[in-house]
Design goal:
The structure is a homodimer of 352-residue chains. Chain A has 352 residues and is α/β, with parallel strands linked by helices. The first copy, chain A, has 2 domains: 191 residues, Quinone Oxidoreductase, Chain A, domain 1 (Alpha-Beta Complex), CATH 3.90.180.10; 132 residues, 3-Layer(aba) Sandwich (Rossmann fold), CATH 3.40.50.720. In chain A, 23% of the residues lie in helices and 26% in strands. In chain A, helix 4 crosses helix 10. The longest helix of chain A is centred in the C-terminal third of the chain and has 14 residues. Chain A is globular, with a radius of gyration of 20 Å. At the A-B interface, strand 14, helix 9 and strand 15 of A face strand 14, helix 9 and strand 15 of B. Strand 15 of chain A pairs antiparallel with strand 15 of chain B.
């Protein structure tokens, strides 16, 4: 077994504290990875505080993992020792259902998430990337180009693919007018990716303080969503709006900005329901409200390659793992531009 | 001017009563039609009682019109005197916007509806098909095959196209599993059309009394939507569900029956909002909730030709126009299988 150091939550109310556990020895198809960086996703906080009601403690969060391969199983063909790799939200799936067969493992009915998920291989619960190393089946390991800064690439594994996948699925490209709602960890990636895909990008935010930054990140226009008049000027003009805001809010003010056949895509689950959206808004222009969930492994690799080609990474603030609890509090206040990434070397506990 | 006899509502609380008015003489592009039959749509009742707040009295309802051509303007090329024709929900549109250019006149921002709409040609308000004749621009007149019973074809002009258009837009065909929610005027057409397109059709109803009829109409299965266990057996199995029920209800029980990438399409605007649909239900299988509105003129003709080819008409109960107020009361109790059609000859007021 592989002794592994980590930070873990032991109940819904306490801080994350140092923790140790054993990873399995790599099996034939496994890649063993020393973790360099791990991004901090808002869902880490939801899980740690049991806000989704599915916490199985101790929880070692983290699903935006960048590391170096240190060992490979006998059947591993695609990865070499020393290579930089990534691990995202999934470490296993059934491999046989229609979703898995279609390379959309995120929709598998029996997925194994990177943390707080039943570990069908080793038993118990999976532990995530706030840890010194991880052992993952090669199907769920991603290649990370040397062109990408490894710390800033970490958030691509969740925030990146969560925004890339719907933009690709709804075939966004040159000539399209795309809205991105919210400029947080997801939203800032949405702006960068939609811009790189050639779309005319409009960022919606409630905060005037974000205008300059949104433009720097690639937004062609910024609309203050509380300004009804500014919103009205964009009526019936959007092909697609990617809504990254999970807090309950009025969706109608966005659906009515869509053209005929336009789609409002939600990627966040609100704690309390959104006000019921207007059915007339959908019917009278054949619009749609859809949802999208991260992405499959094939598409995640495609996204990482796209980011390497277009020189896209996340805007990050690197923290030592000892600052994780403070980082959670700052994340709750949206006081981060735009993603915390943990420098895992600060665990100060070399793997042996 | 053409003296025209009709039934009209004069305020939100009174019955429809006999009424006379003048139609315009046909202009170059107009087709003059003696009306034979007019279907009774639930929206007639909404408008007459001002439940949508846009009533302009007097209202002559009716937008499921079948008649015979009695005169044509000098520029009319597609229609002959004596031909059986139809008129649906629209009698004009701007003809220049992107929606009109794409043959989707139903989404035009300045449409002229067949009744209770600003009449941009003659001034005043348009009067519908509960009347002895109508004069309509040829672009908005449909050919009706002699193969179709003219009375039973009338509801195709609204109930038919409202269900045909989304089934076609979402490319329903052989191998697809399609749900139809509600067995009323729209729903019974949805069952017939989806069946004729080759889909496996499941009818959802709250009423066990409709099971036999649904099967006779073409449903392969009938599910009582109040039976949670029966619903669960269809989880994750539908490609598309067409929801014809306008009354507010829980949409989640239908979205969770959709496969990944499946669509729940709404064609009715509820008086009070549906309970806010679960966003997680959308995200975790990339499902969509969409709306659809009647259909464009090109697609309406395609639907009529499809119905002629497949021998599809509405199940109707023919009434004399003197029974229209009683028919409204019965419609409110769903006491009709499945559409009332007015025999306009009962106006007993020949056009002169």
């Amino acid at each position: 077994m592989l002794k592994t150091h980590a930070y873990a939550a032991h109940n819904a109310n306490s801080n994350l504290t140092p923790f140790s556990f054993d990873r399995r020895e790599p099996r034939a198809n496994d890649v063993q990875i020393d973790i360099l960086y791990c991004g901090v996703c808002h869902s880490d906080l939801h899980q740690v505080r049991n806000e989704w009601g599915s916490a199985s403690y101790p929880i070692v969060p983290g699903h935006e993992i960048i590391g170096k391969v240190t060992a490979i199983g006998s059947a591993v063909s695609g990865f070499k020792i020393g290579e930089t790799v990534g691990v995202g939200c999934l470490v296993d799936s059934c491999r046989t259902c229609p979703d898995c067969q279609d390379n959309l493992e995120q929709f598998c009915n029996t997925p194994t998430f990177t943390y707080n998920s039943e570990d069908k291989v080793s038993g118990g619960t999976t532990y995530g990337g706030y840890s010194s190393r991880i052992v993952v089946d090669q199907h769920f390991v991603l290649h990370i180009s040397d062109k990408l800064d490894p710390a800033a690439a970490a958030p691509l594994l969740c925030a990146g693919i969560t925004t890339y996948s719907p933009l690709r699925h709804w075939k966004i490209g040159k000539g399209d007018k795309v809205g991105i709602v919210g400029l947080g960890g997801l939203g800032h990636m949405g702006v960068k990716l939609a811009h790189a895909m050639g779309a005319h990008v409009v960022l919606f935010t409630t905060s005037t303080s974000k205008i300059d930054d949104a433009k720097r990140l690639g937004a062609d226009e910024v609309v203050i969503s509380k300004d009804a008049e500014a919103m009205q000027q964009h009526r019936l003009s959007f092909d697609f709006i990617l809504n990254t805001v999970a807090a309950a809010h009025n969706l109608d003010s966005f659906t009515e900005l869509l053209k005929r056949d336009g789609t409002l895509c939600l990627v966040g689950v609100p704690d309390s329901p959104h006000p019921s959206p207007s059915v007339a808004n959908l019917i009278f222009k054949r619009r749609q409200i859809a949802g999208s969930l991260i992405g499959g492994l094939k598409e995640t690799q495609e996204m990482l390659d796209f980011c390497a080609e277009h020189n896209i990474v996340s805007d990050i603030e690197i923290i030592p793992i000892q600052h994780i609890n403070e980082a959670y509090e700052r994340m709750l206040k949206s006081d981060v531009k735009y993603r915390f990434v943990i420098d895992i070397s600060t665990l100060n506990a070399p793997n042996s």
